[in-house]
Amino acid sequence: MHTFAAAFLATLSRSHYVLEMESPTPFDPSAPIGTRRAIIRRNPDDASEIEMVEAVWGSNPRFSDGETYRFVRSEGRTFPSHRCLVPASEFHMAVGQKRYRVMLDGGNHFYLAAVWEPAMGDWPLCYRVVTVAANREVARYQERHGAIIHRRQVMQWLDHAVPEGELLETPPARTFLIEELGPGPSQRTLAL
């Protein structure tokens, strides 16, 4: 396991940090099981350190009757440990043969709330994305999406600074812009 050079921490004061990314990438939930991606977490060997490490998307199938789970619902759950973040510029969704990209209306990158699991046996460090009920724009296409953590909420998620219910909420209407992905020009849509 190695620390990525793509992220760095800039000290604002003795106890506050800002996490900066060179260029977050799209998050594609249809990516194959075992796809590797950067996650951000507290270092389990030194909780005062935040690190960016590579992890496999999906839980260890050894502990779930051979199934690999890539998502975990937020409702009725607490996440007292192993919290992490998945940096993203957008997320993708598929409906039939059509594919869409979903971006924050302001164009900012964001993080998806996630939980990580340590490497065990031959299964490497892995993570699952925490989901919430889809907001108004996304609900036209699917029922759920990853819980969005804004940049200002990064430390609140990693440090358990506020209750999960305050962070793992369905975003309000008009949060996202949705574009169809395809060979031709894309069409942006907003829920009205």
- How many β-strand stretches? 14
Average pLDDT rating: 84
The portion of residues assigned to helices is under 10%
Backbone CA Rg = 17 Å
Q: Which blocks of ≥5 consecutive residues have pLDDT under 50?
A: 1-19
Query: Could you give the distance between the termini?
Result: 46 Å
Strand content is 35-45%
Sequence of secondary-structure elements: EEEEEEEEEEEEHHEE
Keyphrases for this structure?
2 helices; mainly beta; 192 residues; disordered N terminus
Give a quick rundown of the structure:
The chain has a five-stranded mixed β-barrel with strand order 3-4-10-9-6.
Question: How is the secondary structure organized here?
Answer:
Blueprint: E1 7-11, E2 17-21, E3 36-43, E4 46-57, E5 71-73, E6 83-88, E7 91-95, E8 98-104, E9 110-117, E10 126-133, E11 144-146, E12 148-149, H1 154-158, H2 164-167, E13 176-181, E14 188-189
Parallel strand pairs: 4-10, 5-10
Antiparallel strand pairs: 1-2, 3-4, 3-6, 6-9, 7-8, 8-13, 9-10, 9-12, 10-11, 13-14
